Amino acid sequence: MKSKDLKKNVSVKGVSLGHLLKKNKKIKETVKKAASELTLVNEVLKQEKVPVQIMKQAITQNEDVEQKVAKAADDLKLVNIKLTEEIAERIVIESELANTKTDLAEVRDDLSKAKVKTEEAQQIALKDVLTGLPNRVSFEQGLDHGLIQAKRHNWRLAVLFIDVDKFKNINDSYGHDLGDQVLLMVANRLKSFVRDEDIVSRWGGDEFVCLLFEVKQEADVTRLAEKMISRIDEACEFDGIILSIRVSIGIAIYPADGDTADSLFKNADTAMYKAKGTERRVVLFRESGERKAD
Questions:
Q1: Is 11 exposed, middle or buried (0-12, 13-18, 19+ CB in 10 A)?
Q2: The model scores a pTM over 0.90
Q3: Are 65 and 38 in contact (CB under 8 A)?
Q4: Cβ-count burial of 113 within 10 angstroms (0-12 exposed, 13-18 middle, 19+ buried)?
Q5: Which of 95, 116, 97 has the alpha carbon at shortest distance from 5?
Q6: How far is Cα 283 from Cα 275, in angstroms, rounded to an integer?
Q7: Is 206 a catalytic residue?
Q8: Contact 248, 276 (CB under 8 A)
Q9: Which one, 165, 180, 205, 224, has the greatest CB density within 10 A?
Q10: Are 271 and 285 in contact (CB under 8 A)?
Q11: How many angstroms separate the CA atoms of 31 and 165, rounded?
């Protein structure tokens, strides 16, 4: 039974129950009145000198009162039966209402849990499994949103493309487990350099990208990239093996090095490959000598 139907039934039963209670009260009033009449008749009959006519009237009245009492007793019995049935039905309906409320609470709880699981699944879908960093899809969403804000507020933003040098040699020499540890180390060291609102993402394999919002000075971005390289260069021990990891970084800054997500990314990638052949290992796209991607 639906909740609306249950509430309607409870309302109807409430009217019916009220009617029966009023009828019960009326019968009791009738019995009380009859008892009063019967007392008067009995007082007349107890008198010693009562005219025959009065005696006959009293006896007739006594019989009428007894009939009224008998009828009232029958009516009261029927009303009590009906009351018992109504109360039993009301208990059943109220029990069903309670069960319905419990079911609704469980449904709300299930929906809440399903929402949480959906949100968790969405978060997982936007994270890199190994490093926990935002993945490619998440980075692209962040870059699209960043460009909208940059165009609206006349901000600059920077895309840094970062590649671990000779990572294949590490995997081949020490195995993929150690290679994964190297990638985790790089991810953590990169994260330590950016603000909460910026994004560090694992693009795939041994490639990472950073998105820096509200860039004030282009020189600050270059200095930050150099600090990243120096920090990652610091020797680190992996299962007893000490390695010094090198990375190369290409930079593209909106709007000078591109005004779309695709052109910024491509130009940062181009600058990164140019950086691999330099001592600093950091190249700003405009310093690479390459033409901007459309």
A1: exposed
A2: no
A3: yes
A4: exposed
A5: 97
A6: 5
A7: yes
A8: yes
A9: 224
A10: yes
A11: 106
Distance separating alpha carbons of residues 134 and 64, to the nearest angstrom: 95
**83 and 17 Cβ atoms separated by less than 8 Å:** yes
Q: 117 is written with which tokens?
A: 């699981």
Would you give per-residue pLDDT tens digits along the chain (294 residues)? 555 565 556 555 555 767 767 777 777 777 777 767 667 666 666 666 667 676 667 677 767 767 777 777 777 777 677 777 777 777 777 777 777 777 667 767 665 665 555 555 555 778 999 999 999 999 999 999 999 999 999 999 999 999 999 999 999 999 999 999 999 999 999 999 999 999 999 998 999 999 999 999 999 999 999 999 999 999 999 889 999 999 999 999 999 999 999 999 999 999 999 999 899 999 999 887 767 666
208 CB-near residues (< 8 Å, 6+ apart): 133, 162, 163, 186, 187, 190, 200, 201, 202
**Which residue in 163, 198, 206, 269 is the catalytic one?**
206
Where helices occur in the chain by DSSP H, the ranges are 3-46, 52-125, 136-153, 167-174, 176-191, 218-233, 261-275
**Sole residue written with tokens 């069903």:** 96
Task: With beta carbons less than 8 A apart as the criterion, state whether 276 and 165 touch.
Answer: yes
Helix pair angle (167-174, 176-191), 10° resolution: 140
**CA torsion angle 98 100 104 105 (round to 10):** 20
